[in-house]
Every structure is written in structure tokens, then in C-alpha cells.
Amino acid sequence: MATARPSLRAEQAEAVRNRLFEAALELIETGQEPTLRAVAAQARVGERTLYRYFPSRDDFRDALGRQFHGRAGIPLCEDAAGLEGYARDLFATFEANSKLVRGLVHAPWAVADLQLTRRRRLEQVTALLRRAWPDAPVAACEAAAASLRAVLSGAGWCHLRDCGFSAEEALHHALWLVRTILDRLASLGAGRG
Questions:
Q1: Confidence tier at 2 by pLDDT (50, 70, 90)
Q2: Which strand (E) or helix (H) includes residue 51?
Q3: pLDDT one-digit tens code per residue, 63-96
Q4: 128-170, pLDDT tens digit by residue?
């Protein structure tokens, strides 16, 4: 049974959307803000064309976020036992998309979004550690979460790489920190039980 092909109009619309997304990616990777005007110019289309597909700046940013999902980060693991694998996968994602990650981390226009993302990730990591070690001191879990959030982030990865660490050395550093923190929380949790 033959699958229905999309119409020519649908194919063209998809091609234009992809062109707009690629233009935004090129802007971010070169340190520029992906404003609607800049994206339209980079994609060599009129602003009206962009607005035809994305009626507002927020619509475009939401679509852009979905398009880049998985390029500049990955979802946090479900439990503390998965943190080493998470670190490996996260750093591999950063390496594969280094221009995008660096563009976002160093972009003045992205500060508000990054602050929100960082705060959410800190809350997620804190909750993950509290679930794993409910008997550990709350302050210890919060400090551990802050350390993990800092190193297991685009900014943490950039810092390690900018300090001259190779990809392998940066990952080794992150894994050492994960293991050290988890071991310490395990001993604190066991000591209070």
C-alpha cells in the first residue's frame, strides 16, 4: 500500500522552515542573536515569509527550541545511579554540537533563558539527590546538586575545554566529580540512618 506523499506546498513549507532554522543556527554559532529580522536576512527570505510560518517571536523561539532539543543538552537521568551515563551522554552531545553550545553559553541575549534553565536544572538535581539519599543532610544534597549542576552544564563543559582539557580529560573530570559526590552523599546518608 502506497503512502500518501505530502503536497508540493507542504514540502516547500517544510523546506522554508528548515532554511529558517538553519539560518538561526548559523547566527547562534557565530555569536549573533537570532532575531526575526536577522534570521530572515540570513535565510535570504523576507520577514513576511518568516511571519507566515511563525506569527510571533515566541512562536519562532518555541519552534527553534524544539528543533534544537537534544543538540545543546539532554534530559536529566531518572535516578542518581544514572548520573555517570548522563555525564557521558551530555558531554558527547556538547562535543558534537560545540559551536551551538558555545554560542548559547556566551550569548548576552540568552542570559535570562539560561538563568531560568540553570535554576530548573538545580531543582531537578537537588530532587534527584534527595530521593536517592533522604537521610543525608539537606545542606549536603543542596551543595552537591550545585556542584553537579555547574560541571554538568554547557558552561561547565566550555570552562573545562577553554582551560585546555581535551574532550576525554573534561569528561574524566566530570565523572570524577560525580563519583566523589555520590560516594560522599552515600556515606552521609548511611551515617544518619
A1: low
A2: helix 47-53
A3: 988 888 778 889 999 999 999 999 999 999 999 9
A4: 999 999 999 999 999 999 999 999 999 999 999 999 999 999 9
Burial class for 193, CB neighbours closer than 10 Å (0-12, 13-18, 19+): exposed
Cell of 3: 503512502
Cell triple for 116: 531560568
**Domains recognised in the chain with CATH numbers:** 8-68 (1.10.10), 80-192 (no CATH)
Q: Which triple of cell numbers denotes residue 95? A: 562535543
Instruction: Report phi then psi at 135, rounded to 5.
Output: -90, -10
What burial letters (b/e) apply to 14-24, b meaning 16+ CB within 10 Å? eebbebbbebb
Identify which of 69, 54, 182, 185 has the alpha carbon closest to the alpha carbon of residue 40.
Answer: 54
Q: Which three cell numbers stand for residue 42?
A: 540570513
Return the pLDDT at 1: 62
Contacting residues for 175 by C-beta, under 8 A, at least 6 apart: 84, 87, 88
- Give Cα separations from 15 to 18, 19, 48 (angstroms): 5, 6, 16
